[in-house]
Design goal:
Blueprint lengths: L9 E5 L7 E6 L3 H4 L4 E9 L4 E6 L3 E9 L1 E6 L2 E6 L3 E4 L4 E7 L4 E9 L2
Antiparallel strand pairs: 1-2, 2-3, 3-10, 4-9, 5-8, 5-10, 6-7, 6-9
Length: about 120
């Protein structure tokens, strides 16, 4: 199967998880069914300059970000780290995180959410 970029569904989200501004989420796989019920998100996410996903905790699932480009301020359970292209973040079950784009360019990243069990 090939899904052409024009066929990848995208959604503009305002203030996700109480964050600021807006992000775009492009669903690369169609939810749990294409993830064989092992997860719920595999997406290309754009966090626009000055915008961010608010701090949230993952229950019974993990979330990994692969940063493609841009510079972000990542909150890893209260520890603030600057992330850039090529960095990988991992938030395990019961842990929390947030990210905001800092600088002039958006943060482009791949997000993967997998179920713990």
């Amino acid at each position: 199967m090939v899904r052409r970029k024009e066929d990848v569904p995208s959604e503009l989200k305002q203030s996700p998880f109480g964050g600021i501004g807006e992000i775009t989420v492009r669903s690369l796989l169609k939810g749990p069914e294409e993830l064989y019920e092992k997860g719920r998100v595999f997406a290309h996410t754009t966090v626009y300059p000055g915008a961010g996903l608010g701090y949230h905790i993952h229950e019974n699932e993990s979330e990994t970000y692969y940063i493609l480009s841009g510079t972000g301020r990542f909150n890893d359970n209260g520890t603030i780290v600057t992330v850039t292209g090529g960095d990988v973040t991992f938030t395990g079950a019961g842990e929390g995180h947030s990210i905001e784009a800092i600088g002039e360019e958006p943060v482009e990243m791949i997000a993967l959410i997998l179920y713990k069990d």
